[in-house]
């Protein structure tokens, strides 16, 4: 068979990887590939050779819809945002803390397609009482959805650290570092801390490296208490 | 407990991409999102050159990342660089699409792209350092090819042109184009093996 001529197979593998084999020839070659490991190896080698070119092309950002489309395809179950992830909820709540309690109730009522219990907490400055973060969590407290409400201008290496003090306890537990630039993020909660979560969340502002210390070493500058919500 | 930083753009070194792929193999969705943020502009550029239509290219890009997610476990760091491996998936996907819809003509009126960024001698030391060793070798070998051989190969690679389309586009007989490609590819291989 002609396909056993190594020069020919090498060339076909190269042209297949380059993409110039077309129509019947391409289909025939793909059938051969299934049967001949050697041919597959040659194609792979050519793909590696040629696809180094991939990095040299000037990048072009894909449309934002590509990512949401992709998410929908791969993880369809996460597509309907849960109430604590809904953006307009955050936007409304970020308006200010004075009208917060009333507003919270209204917003939660407006956003009520389904009944989901959960918790919400406003973390306020201990002096000015201004809200700096809003944290919400589903009932099982497996993660915290954190939104920074007001961008903070912090020196490099200085981070806002989130701590948990369970109800009736003097112990303080580390939860993680908070966003400080007006963004939002999800903070996973370790299994052993989920049941301790009812209580007080506190924030210190400290100079740290990349890792979260186990105990606070600065004063508590922000704090807040959970309120259950059911919508 | 630490928090991942948001600096997706800086996550572009080969090791970091390889790590993200490894985490994707364990079905870590956040790693997948980081991988997408760090690599999608490079892959989209590849796909868009071949498919041309923005919507179709976006479609192909999504299909490519579905494959990347499903096959992340097949990625072998000792065999390929992450972007090379992902690029192969995206290109195959793009080429399959235009070959399936075989009637996507490459118009002769389209200006011939010169691919100056390939054979660019003005790349400073910084760019050269940022390129991997293999990539530099490939660029050097491409530069050693005769102009039309290189041009045909780059048009085929970046535009997904077939023999017929190349002949049409380069206003050259089909047989000549085929032999340009054949000789170009073989010389490229010899050159890379000598490096």
List the helices and strands and how they pair.
The complex is a heterodimer of chains A (231) and B (195).
Chain A: H1 6-18, H2 23-35, H3 37-51, H4 64-74, H5 87-93, H6 100-110, E1 117-125, E2 131-138, E3 143-148, E4 158-166, E5 173-178, E6 184-188, H7 191-194, E7 199-207, E8 220-230
Antiparallel strand pairs in A: 1-2, 1-8, 2-3, 3-6, 4-5, 4-7, 7-8
Chain B: H1 14-25, H2 29-51, H3 54-71, H4 82-100, H5 125-130, H6 133-144, H7 147-159, H8 163-169, H9 174-194
Describe this protein's structure.
The complex is a heterodimer of chains A (231) and B (195). With 231 residues, chain A is of the alpha+beta class. Chain A has seven helices and eight strands, in the order ααααααββββββαββ. Chain A has helices at residues 6-18, 23-35, 37-51, 64-74, 87-93, 100-110, 191-194; strands at 117-125, 131-138, 143-148, 158-166, 173-178, 184-188, 199-207, 220-230. In chain A, strand 1 and strand 2 (131-138) form a beta hairpin. The radius of gyration of chain A is 27 Å and the shape is elongated. Mean pLDDT of chain A is 78; it is low at 111-115. Chain B is an all-alpha fold and 195 residues long. Helices cover 67% and strands 0% of the residues of chain B. Chain B has helices at residues 14-25, 29-51, 54-71, 82-100, 125-130, 133-144, 147-159, 163-169, 174-194. The longest helix of chain B has 23 residues, at 29-51. Residues 1-11, 103-109 and 121-130 of chain B have low confidence and may be disordered. At the A-B interface, helix 1, helix 3, helix 4, strand 5 and strand 6 of A face helix 2, helix 3, helix 4, helix 6 and helix 7 of B.
């Amino acid at each position: 068979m002609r396909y056993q001529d190594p020069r020919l197979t090498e060339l076909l593998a190269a042209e297949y990887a380059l993409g110039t084999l077309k129509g019947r020839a391409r289909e025939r070659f793909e059938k051969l590939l299934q049967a001949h490991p050697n041919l597959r190896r040659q194609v792979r080698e050519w793909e590696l050779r040629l696809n180094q070119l991939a990095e040299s092309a000037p990048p072009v950002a894909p449309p934002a819809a590509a990512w949401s489309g992709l998410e929908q395809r791969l993880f369809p179950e996460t597509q309907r945002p849960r109430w604590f992830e809904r953006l307009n909820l955050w936007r409304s709540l970020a308006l200010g803390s004075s009208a917060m309690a009333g507003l919270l109730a209204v917003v939660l009522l407006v956003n009520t397609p389904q009944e989901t219990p959960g918790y919400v907490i406003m973390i306020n400055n201990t002096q000015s009482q201004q809200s700096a973060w809003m944290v919400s969590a589903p009932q099982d407290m497996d993660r915290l959805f954190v939104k920074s409400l007001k961008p903070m201008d912090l020196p490099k290496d200085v981070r806002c650290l989130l701590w948990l003090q369970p109800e009736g306890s003097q112990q303080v537990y580390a939860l993680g570092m908070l966003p400080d630039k007006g963004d939002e993020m999800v903070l996973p909660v370790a299994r052993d801390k989920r049941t301790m979560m009812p209580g007080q969340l506190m924030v210190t502002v400290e100079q740290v490296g990349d890792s979260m210390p186990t105990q606070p070493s600065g004063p508590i500058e922000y704090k807040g208490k959970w309120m259950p919500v059911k919508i | 407990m630490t928090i991942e930083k948001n600096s997706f753009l800086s996550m572009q070194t080969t090791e970091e991409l390889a790590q993200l792929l490894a985490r994707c193999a364990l079905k870590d969705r956040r790693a997948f999102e980081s991988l997408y943020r760090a690599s999608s502009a490079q892959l989209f550029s590849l796909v868009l050159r071949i498919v041309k239509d923005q919507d179709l290219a976006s479609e192909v890009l999504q299909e490519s990342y579905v494959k990347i997610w499903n096959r992340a476990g097949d990625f072998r760091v000792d065999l390929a660089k992450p972007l090379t491996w992902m690029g192969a998936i995206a290109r195959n996907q793009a080429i399959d699409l235009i070959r399936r819809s075989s009637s996507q003509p490459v118009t002769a009126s389209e200006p011939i792209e010169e691919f100056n960024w390939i054979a660019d001698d003005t790349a400073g030391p910084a760019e050269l350092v940022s390129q991997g060793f293999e990539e530099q070798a490939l660029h050097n070998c491409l530069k050693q090819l005769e102009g039309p051989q290189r041009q045909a190969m780059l048009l085929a690679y970046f535009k997904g042109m077939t023999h017929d389309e190349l002949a049409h586009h380069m206003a050259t007989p089909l047989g000549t184009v085929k032999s340009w490609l054949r000789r170009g590819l073989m010389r490229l291989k010899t050159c890379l093996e000598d490096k």
